């Protein structure tokens, strides 16, 4: 199923989609709320209808992958497929984007190369069509996006980051990149740009979701045409940082927004979701921590593991078996964090459980029921099938969260759309919320140009 395109929906259709999503999520909330490590302790398989058990019991991992990617549940989820089918920029070299020059690739991993180029180019187009005078990159980290927008695309950029260490690193990388570009200018004087290069302006500041940040709204310089017109952007703005950007959008200084959110489980509860009056009033719209956490999974990456029948899939079963042993020894100890066990899928289930017991401070020599462990390992495919079910429904949760944000913008009389901007195989959180004070009309199509 291709999924839902936001641009094809009217305001009323968006509200109806929110109604449909809350109804479906209410039906299957028990699956989404489940923790796979409790597969045996809570008899999760037994909670499924008998007809589901029969259907899932005979499916191989590759068949589960097809179920994940082509299920009818996706008919209610926003499409995550961008206009390009593969990240063509990595066809020649999987570690170097052919669409970024070498100076902008330095210190940047392939995933980030893809993200800063795609979002940076969209921000440039959005800035042009909305006549913005300055871009504010909130939660800028080491400044990779800010550098590309300022030194690569010629935008005036203010970068705001709460971590002083990251800002110091960003300023160091700014100087390093500027020196590299200047050396390139000396080797090729004819290619020197007319206007001087401008590095991002970095500010150390924590942006709170509950109060306006004056620094965020201050222009770098006074515009000769009058007041500043700001474009706010955030690349994988974590948790409440996304909420802060959405709330600042209503300020008169802000003309446009390009936001890619992530880490929905870190949203304040209440406060971070729901934001719109419409979703807040819907029965069943509440989303627990577990549901919001599940919405952050890398669906396509897991489907690939299923297709390959990766031996690491059995780790789900091993961890669930470990949970039964932990509770057998200490019933009050539930869902403890377990330090990763290297190459867990290559060892026997008993070895895994004993190492896991040690990692949570229990005696690794506790007596174990070998027959029970064997019976649990025999259900490995069921564990994987149940986990696949939760991933199948998880995009509906993300869709409801993002739909709530779209409706929040529209309830204020503004305009908002959602675009799949990154390859989901590279960057699972790949939907960018674009908001403007004035309708873009046909100009919006400029933002959707595909990769070559």
Q: Specify the number of helices.
A: 17
Gross geometry: globular
Biggest sheet: strand arrangement:
3-2-1-4-5-7-6
Order of helices and strands: HHHHHHEHEHEHEHEHHHHHHHEE
Class by alpha and beta content:
alpha/beta
Q: Which blocks of ≥5 consecutive residues have pLDDT under 50?
A: none
Mean pLDDT: 90
Oligomeric form:
single chain
Beginning-to-end CA distance, first to last residue: 25 Å
> What is Rg?
24 Å
Strand content: 5-15%
Summarize the biggest pleated sheet.
7 strands, mixed
Task: Please give the number of β-strands.
Answer: 7
Helix content: 40-55%
Question: Key features?
Answer:
7-stranded mixed beta sheet; single chain; 452 residues; 43% helix; alpha/beta; 17 helices
Task: Give the structure's gist in a few sentences.
Keywords: Methyltransferase, Transferase. The protein is α/β, with parallel strands linked by helices.
Overall description:
The protein has 452 residues and is α/β, with parallel strands linked by helices. Helices cover 43% and strands 10% of the residues. It contains 17 helices and 7 strands. The chain has helices at 11-27, 29-32, 50-57, 61-70, 102-105, 110-130, 144-152, 164-187, 214-217, 240-248, 277-280, 289-294, 299-307, 315-329, 349-359, 370-377, 380-411; strands spanning 134-138, 157-161, 201-204, 230-238, 254-262, 415-420, 431-436. A 7-stranded mixed beta sheet has the order 3-2-1-4-5-7-6, with helices on both faces. Helix 10 (240-248) links the parallel strand 4 and strand 5 (254-262). Helix 14 (315-329) packs across helix 15. The chain starts with 10 loop residues before the first helix and ends in a 16-residue tail after the last strand. The mean pLDDT is 90.
């Amino acid at each position: 199923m291709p999924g839902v395109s936001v641009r094809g929906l009217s305001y009323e259709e968006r509200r109806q989609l929110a109604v449909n999503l809350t109804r479906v999520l209410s039906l299957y909330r028990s699956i989404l709320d489940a923790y796979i490590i409790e597969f045996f302790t809570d008899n999760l398989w037994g909670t499924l209808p008998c007809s589901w058990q029969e259907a899932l019991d005979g499916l191989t991992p590759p068949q589960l992958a097809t179920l994940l990617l082509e299920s009818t549940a996706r008919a209610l989820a926003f499409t995550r497929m961008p206009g390009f089918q593969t990240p063509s920029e990595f066809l020649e070299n999987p570690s170097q984007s052919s669409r970024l020059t070498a100076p902008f690739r330095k210190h940047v991993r392939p995933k980030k190369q893809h993200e800063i180029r795609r979002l940076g180019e969209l921000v440039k187009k959005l800035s042009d069509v909305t006549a913005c005078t300055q871009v504010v990159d909130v939660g800028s980290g080491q400044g990779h996006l800010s550098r590309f927008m300022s030194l690569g695309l010629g935008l005036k950029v203010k970068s705001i980051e709460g971590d002083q260490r990251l800002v110091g690193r960003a300023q160091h990388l700014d100087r390093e990149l500027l020196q590299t570009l200047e050396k390139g200018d000396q080797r090729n004087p004819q290619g020197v740009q007319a206007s001087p290069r401008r590095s991002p302006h970095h500010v150390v500041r924590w942006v709170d979701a509950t109060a306006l940040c004056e620094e965020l709204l201050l222009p770098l310089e006074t515009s000769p045409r009058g007041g500043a017109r700001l474009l706010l952007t955030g690349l994988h703005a974590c948790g409440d940082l996304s909420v802060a950007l959405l709330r600042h959008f209503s300020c008169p200084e802000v003309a446009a927004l390009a936001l890619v959110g992530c880490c929905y489980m870190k949203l304040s509860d209440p406060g971070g979701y729901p934001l719109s009056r419409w979703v807040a009033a819907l029965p069943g719209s509440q989303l627990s921590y577990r549901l919001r956490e599940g919405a952050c999974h890398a669906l396509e990456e897991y489907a690939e593991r299923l297709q390959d029948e990766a031996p690491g899939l059995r780790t789900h079963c091993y961890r669930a078996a470990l949970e039964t042993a932990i509770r057998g020894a200490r019933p009050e100890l539930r869902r403890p964090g377990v330090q990763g066990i290297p190459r867990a899928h290559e060892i026997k289930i008993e070895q895994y459980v004993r190492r896991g017991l040690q990692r949570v401070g229990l005696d690794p020599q506790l007596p174990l029921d070998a027959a029970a462990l064997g019976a649990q390992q025999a259900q490995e495919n069921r564990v994987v099938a149940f986990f696949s079910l939760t991933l199948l429904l998880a995009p509906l949760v993300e869709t409801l969260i993002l739909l709530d944000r779209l409706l929040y913008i529209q309830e204020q009389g503004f305009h908002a759309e959602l675009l799949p901007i990154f390859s989901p195989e590279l960057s699972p959180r790949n939907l960018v919320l674009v908001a403007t004070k004035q309708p873009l009309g046909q100009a919006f199509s400029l933002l959707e140009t595909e990769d070559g």
